[in-house]
Structures are given as C-alpha cells and as structure tokens.
Amino acid sequence: MAVAFVGGALLGAVFGELLRAVSEAKDKAVMFKDLLEQLESTLQNSTPMIKEIEKLNQVLDLPKHETDTLIEMMRRGEHLVHKCSRVKWNCFKRYDYAKKIIKLDRSIDTFFRTYIPLQQTRDNRVIMVDLKEVHMMVKRLSGNDRTSWMFNQVGVAGACSAPDPPPVTPGLDVPLQELKLELFKDGRQVIVVSAPGGYGKTTLVKKLCKDDQVLGKFKDNIFFVTVSQTPNVKGIVQKVYQHKGYAVPEFQTDEDAINDLERLLKPIRPEAILLVLDDVWSGSESLLQKFKFQLPYYKILVTSRSVFPQFGSGYDLKPLNDEAARTLFRYSANLQDGNSYIPDENLVNKILRACKGCPLALTVVGGSLCGKHPAIWQKRVKEWTQDVSVFHSNKEILSCLERSLDALNNEVKECYMDLCSFPEDQRIPITALVDMWMELYELVDELFAIANLHELSNLNLANCVATRKYASDDSCYNDHFVMQHDLLRELAIYQSTLEPIKQRKRLIIDTSGNNFPEWWMDQKQHPLNASLLSISTDETFSSNWYDMEAPEVKVVVLNVRTKKYTLPKFLEKMDKLKVMIVTNYGFFPAELSNIQVFGALSNLKRIRLEHVSLPSLTTVRMKHLQNVSLVMCNVDQVVQNSTFHFSDAFPNLLEIDIDYCNDLIELPDGLCDIVSIKKLRITNCHKLSALPEGIGKLVNLQMLTLASCTDLSALPDTIGNLSNLNFLDISECLNIQELPERIGELCSLKTLCLKGCSMFELPSSILNLENLEVVKCDEETAYQWEYFQLGQAKFRIEVIQEDINLYWLHNPHL
Fold it and tell me: For 172-316, which CATH class?
C-alpha cells in the first residue's frame, strides 16, 4: 500500500520498504513491539509529507543532498529493523538497538516536521531572487528600445506600503472616524488633511491606512508616498511601479510619468484606489492636479501644513484635547505607571498649557523630562512659561522644542544637529552616522556613537527603525536607520544658521538646479570654518561647481539625485577631510566621475558610497583609508580591473562593507593582499558565486560576514588559515552545501551563524573548535548541532526565529 502511491520514485520506494519492514517486525520482535509501533505511527503520519515532497520535486529542483540524507536514514532504519527481528531475548544488544530505534523515530519525525516549511520558505526566497533574472531575460529577448529602458530596475512589492502608526495615539479615534466619512463620500476625489507641523497629520493618515474598513475597501491598492518640500513626480510614479512589483521605468519628463501612472492604474478598476501624498507643501496645487485621473473609486488623500481651497473644504486636524494631551505627555515622560515622583501636579498642567495640544511638542518635552529631578522640571516650566504663551504657529512650536534640547549634553546635542545633513523624509543609515561621529567627535569606540543615538531616540528627537528583526552580528547596523520629523530637522537647520556663515560648525546647502546660495559666490565669506559640509542637489543639477575654501571640514555629505555626478574639485583642498558620504536618492545608479579627488585627500579614513556606479580606480591611492562601505553600487569596473593593485592603493584598510551590490560576481584576488583587513562584510550580493582561494592570506581577519549571498556555493578550504577569525556568518547562503573540513582549524572562532542555511552534513572537525561559544541557526537545523553537543562540545545553540519579509531583497534605502 505504501509503495503504490509513489510509483517508482526512489524516495517513495525506500519509504515504503521501511514501513513494510516495521509493520512485519512489530509482531516478531516482541521486545521492541512498543517502539516499533511508535515508529510505524510516525511513518504513517509522514505519508502526506512524502506525497508533498514528490509533488515539489515535479516542479522544483529540490536540494538533492537533503532527500539523499532522508533516503540513507531510511535504508539504515530498514536494516536496523531486520536486525531487531533476529535479536534473541537475552542478547546484550537489545538496549543498543532500542536506543537506535528511538533515535530513528525522532530523526524521521523532525525531518518531516521541518523539511516542507523550510523548503517552501527557501523556494520563495530563491524565486524572488530569480525575479530580476526573468525580467532581464525578457529585456534581452525583446530587442525593443522601449522594453530596454523599462527593465532597468525590477520592482519589489511593498515600496509604497503605509508605515505603522506609533503604539500610543490618544485623541485620534474621533478624527479617524470623521476622516473616514470624508474619504467614503461620493463625489470628492481629493481630501486634504491640514494642520500646523507636529499636530499628527501623518500619524492620523497612517492609522487610517491600517483601519479594517479602509483596508476592506481599498485592499492592496493603497499607495503611501512622502512628497516633501521638493516634489519629485517621476520618483513618486516610480515608487508606485515598484510597489506593484513591476519593472521601474526611467521617465524622460514628468508628463511621461503621469501618463504612465494613469495607464498603470486603469486596469485596477473597478477596485478602489487610494493615493496618499504625505507632507505636501504650500504652492503644490499644480502637483495635486497632475495626479487627478478620471477613474471611478479613485481617491487622493493629502497631508499638508497648508490648505488648498480649490480642492474643497478639506479636513482641519485640531490640537489634542486636555485628556488626550495628558495621556500622551505621561506616556512620553514615562509617568503612565504612576510610580515616578513629580513634586507638583501643577507642573504637568503648566506644561500641557504651554504645549497647547501639539503632539510633537508633548512627545519631545515629555521625553526631555523623563527621569529628571523635580528641580529640573521646575526650571524648565519657568523657562517655558516666561517665553511661550500659546502655540499657533510653527515658529512658536520650534521655540518650545528648542527648550527641550537643554536636556542634552553638548556632544549629544551636536549629534542631533548633524541629522539635518541628510535630506528631509529620508531614512538615515545608522552606519553613516557612526562614520561621521567617530571622526567629528574623536570617539574611541563605535558604541559611544550608538549610545548617543539611543539617547536621541529616548528623548523622542529621532526614531530608530530596524528593517530586519534579526541581526547575526550585534555590532552590525546595516539594517538600522533613523527617521526624524521634518519639524525637528527644521529646528536643527534653524539653529545651524544662527551664527555668521564663516563661524558656522556645519554648512547645510540645499540647491535647486544650479542656484547656489549667494554667500557661496561671495569670496569675502571664504575661508569657511565649518567642520561638516552637506550639499543636496536635485535632478536638474549639472555638476558645475563654484569654488569653495573650507580647510577645517572633516566630514562631507553629498546627497545626489542625478544619473551623472561629478565630485567637486574643491574637495582636494580639504586637508582635514576624514569622512566622505555620497548617497544617490534617485531610482537609478549615479555615474560618479572625478573620483581621483579621493586620492588627493591625505587624511581620508572613511568612505561610504550608496547607489552609484564606480569607475575604474586605476589612479586612486588612499594610504590612510580604513573603512569602505559600498551599498547598492555598481562595482564591476573596479572588480574587473586586473591591473589595479589593491594592497598598494589601500595598504591600511581595516573594514570593507559591501551590501546589495548585484553585479558583484566574484571578489578580486588582489583584495586578499590587503592583510590589514579585520572585518569583511559582504551581504545581499545575490550573484556572488565564489570567494578567492587567496582569502586565507587575510591573517588578521576577525569578522567575516557573507549573509544572503544566495549564489555562493562553498567556502574555500583556505579559510582554515584565518587563525584570528572569531565571527563567521553565512546566514541565508542557500546554495552552500557543506562546510569545509578545515573549518575546524579556526582556533579563535567564537560565533558561527547559519540562519536560513540548508541542512547539510557537518564535518567532524567541528569538534576541534574549542573556543566556539555560540551557534546561531534555525530550529530546523538545530538538531544537527545537538549531536555535537553530545560529543562534549561546549558551545550553546541559539535558535533564531524566522523573520520573513522582503527587506533582504528590497532596496532599503529608498
């Protein structure tokens, strides 16, 4: 019976033979009857799983070594069962055979409980990785010019998903119901939610997008896009394409983008569509008009500090009432448990009156007073009540928030001010902030930078966001970002401008086209004294730079949106420059030119490049460079340059971080000649297929991370030469079939991460890892490591819960 349902398939045949042997032996081998009946029950319960594996084998290429492991396990099991049938009553092997039957039963049960979910999860990941390859194949086959530019970038679902609202949102239940009524009314296509900055407009709309009734009406057709002060029509439309999982087109004009958006949305009807345009600024009436289409059940929801009468009366969000304001303030000041001592409840009442129901002010002020001595409460209240009466304008709210900065020590306040170096409404990589602060404030350890960031977060001056719940390396923050309310960013910019140009610590320059600020062209303002220089340019910038003399600059942040970008020549004169951060916020990689300026910067220690195409580095030499981060970069020209001597160009390099570089197929051998490297992280590089044998020359390497490199098939044997390696992470490397035997020679290895890896035979040399402290893996593979624990290995097993999301494929920086 067991063999019949699987036909001639090897797996089914072997399974059937084992089941038949157990069924026959349970009556003969009386001393093992109970154990064999339990094994028979396990096998019978596993019958549907065998069918499922056979079904998957018809449509997917399952890893052969895993089914081979099961087949071998069952063959040995059948041999064991036959032995049991022949055992005599007084045979000393009875106990040994009984233990083996129990072990076989548990192993088969574990395999079938974990294999199918594991395989389906793995196949989902692989299918998503291969999606880009499918689109590229269509591109090659079509030969059509329009198709060629349409498939420059593959979309990933979820790019315009509405963010989750904060956990506590008192006072918004009534506005939510009122706004829903406005949204569901017939005849109104555009609804504008207006209120001053910091009043909770975006939070209200986030709650709306997560409301069950709204989700029931609009389903998956809710597109949430942040517009900001400088709207990018092409970028908005590209995000909608990305959200729907389509290839992202490259538009020549805004009109092209709008026309294509209408063509994209039309097939969705008759389903309802909701387009949320968050943070729309005054004067954007023409922008809103562009997004109006004659589609049934199509709504546009706008948040703005301004009203737009031509689109109707809109919805005016009021300040919080006294009860809601008190609830939010007590939550922000951590008073909700009633245990914190406040000398006089009147102090709270005075603060509430000063904040006038502004949620942002309540949150920031509450955070600044959290845990503070009562005397500080009294001092702050006196300051606020003297200087501030009512808050009906952004300027007055800024004054209130400005007082809250007094809670910060000088270094943390400077870190807060530095956040305005990055564009409005963009996620700021924590790793970029660490690079900045390590050099600006001469910190001795990165933990101090992280501590400053946590203090800002605790005071509600910044929001930390992690795009993955699990990070194998506690010191790695590649998946962590910071978000800041635009009003708090305005406060930082405002405070930065209080000093004269020549005396400012940081210069924040935001240009439109080639319109530079007048002071820049006034040579009387030079030389400048700033230590941080941030320049943001838009899509129309032509890279025609004016000269600048800023000899004290230590950190340069260049925020880019054009497809071609020339680094300014004046950088060469910045002898004290230590950190260079170039981030492209456009949809397509920016071609970086004049990169030779890097070679002229004798003190440059850290470079972070994001979403750019790197040219050949033939003429670049950076002898003091210590850290390099490449995120979503095209690196092929660098890697393929066989004449470039990495060890000569970067003789003192300590850390390399390569993330989402999809054209990285193999590491150049020359990279392994930089023996100073201590940390090498290569993550989410799905085309990386092999590591060079020369990696064994990196004798000072302490940390090697290769997470989510899905094409990587093996680790080279020379990895055994890395005697100082204490951390190894191959999580989500789906194609690695085995660990090299020489892994047992990693005498310093303390942490080994294999989350999301296939089940494979582990080499016996694992027992030689005397310093191994922790193995991080999935529940499905933990049992393999438990056997080694029985072999007296002292490490602990840390089972990592599955974090299923698309961030490992998604561009996390747009």
Answer: alpha beta
Q: Where are the beta strands (DSSP E) in 601-671?
A: 606-610, 612-613, 627-631, 655-659
Helix (H) or strand (E) holding 429: strand 428-429
805's torsion region: left (phi>0), alpha (psi -120 to 50) or beta? Answer: beta
Residues 6+ apart with CB under 8 A from 390: 356, 396
CB 774 within 8 A of CB 796: yes
Higher pLDDT, 287 or 808: 287
Residue 651: asked if its preceding bond is cis (omega within 30°), the reply is no
Lowest mean pLDDT among 329-343, 419-433, 551-565: 329-343
d(CA 747, CA 771): 7
Report which of 813, 806, 770 is spatially closest to residue 788, judged by C-alpha positions. Answer: 770
Class of domain 665-813: alpha beta
Residue 499's region, left for phi above 0, alpha for psi from -120 to 50, else beta, is beta
Bridge partners, residue 777, by sequence: 799
Residue 213, both tokens: 């009734």
Where do we find the tokens 């845990």?
371
Q: Which of 639, 638, 629 is nearest to 660 (CA)?
A: 629
H/E element holding 289?
Answer: helix 285-290
CA angle 238, 244, 245 (to 5 degrees): 90
- Token duo for residue 219: 């389903």
pLDDT band at 486 (very low <50, low <70, confident <90, very high): confident
Rounded Cα distance between 381 and 368, Å, is: 12
What is the Cβ-side half-sphere exposure of residue 310, based on CA atoms within 13 angstroms?
9
What's the CA gap between 681 and 694, in Å, rounded? 16
Give the Cα separation of 298 and 162 in Å (integer). 17
Q: Exposed/middle/buried for 628, CB within 10 Å: 0-12, 13-18, 19+?
A: middle
Phi first, then psi: what are they for 463, rounded to 5°?
Answer: -115, 125
Q: Which residues pair with 606 in a beta bridge?
A: 579, 627
- pLDDT band, very low/low/confident/very high, at 474 (cuts 50, 70, 90): low
pLDDT tens for 713-736 read 899 999 999 999 999 999 988 888
Cα–Cα distance between 639 and 663 in angstroms, integer?
10
221 Cβ contact partners less than 8 Å away, ≥ 6 residues apart: 268, 271, 272, 273, 274
**Of the given ranges (131-140, 290-299, 465-474, 487-496), which has the lowest mean pLDDT?**
131-140
User: Cα 36 from chain centroid?
Assistant: 49
Distance of CA 566 to the CA centre of its chain: 28
CB 358 within 8 A of CB 352: no
Question: Shortest CA distance to 772 belongs to which of 789, 756, 790?
Answer: 789
Enclosing H/E stretch for 560: strand 555-560
SS3 371: coil
Sheet holding 298-304, edge to edge: 222-228, 273-280, 298-304, 190-194, 315-316
Are residues 186 and 298 in contact, defined by beta-carbon separation less than 8 angstroms? no
Q: How many CA atoms lie within 13 A of 561 on its CB side?
A: 20
CA atoms within 13 A on the CB side of 666: 17
C-alpha to C-alpha distance for 39 and 169, rounded to whole angstroms:
55
Structure tokens at 457: 């977060």
Distances in Å between the alpha carbon of 750 and those of 478, 480, 746, 793, 794? 21, 24, 9, 12, 11
3-state helix, strand, coil in the chain (%, to 5): 45, 15, 40
Instruction: Write out the two tokens for 259.
Output: 């026309």
What is the pLDDT at residue 7?
Answer: 35
**Partners of 658 in the beta sheet?**
630, 682
End-to-end CA, the chain: 56
